[in-house]
Design goal:
Strand content: 25-35%
CATH topology: Bacillus phage protein
Radius of gyration: 15 Å
Structural class: alpha+beta
CATH architecture: 2-Layer Sandwich
Number of domains: 1
CATH superfamily: Bacillus phage protein-like
Largest sheet: 3 strands, antiparallel
Strand order of the largest sheet: 1-2-3
Order of helices and strands: HEEEHEEEH
Helix content: 25-40%
Number of helices: 3
CATH class: Alpha Beta
Distance between the termini: 12 Å
Length: about 130
């Protein structure tokens, strides 16, 4: 099993885009963005331009985008996120249930969005 905790946020975002969302990178000059299988623009792939009206794809730091990945993969899914504060650090947990069956569970010292992304990737790898 892959240790997703060793990957950067950018690497996790790319894996989610390609393996879960089914997107691919499109180059337009020196700008990259994500497109779906029909060639529709989905999100910016590079660091966001403050003038850009389009979202930057960064689910490890954006909980809404992380949830979007889970919904895209499984449709209806139960996501349980837990946060525990231990003073000098926090623990986050993400557990996914697909139709009552536990798809994956992850608890670690990381933000909730990142924990959810890693749980999604683990569940996809185990399928």
């Amino acid at each position: 099993m892959t240790d997703y905790s060793k990957l950067t946020n950018e690497q996790v975002a790319e894996l989610l885009a390609t393996k879960v969302m089914g997107w691919h990178i499109h180059h337009y000059g020196n700008v990259r963005h994500w497109e779906d299988k029909d060639g529709r623009f989905m999100a910016n792939a590079d660091v966001p331009n403050i003038r850009s009206e389009y979202p930057h794809w960064n689910p490890p730091e954006d909980l809404n985008q992380a949830v979007e990945c889970a919904k895209s993969k499984w449709g209806t899914i139960t996501i349980i996120l837990t946060l525990e504060d231990y003073g000098d650090y926090q623990m986050s947990g993400a557990t996914l249930y697909d139709g009552g069956e536990k798809a994956c569970s992850l608890i670690d010292k990381k933000p909730p969005a990142r924990a959810l992304c890693e749980a999604i990737l683990q569940a996809v790898e185990e399928e």
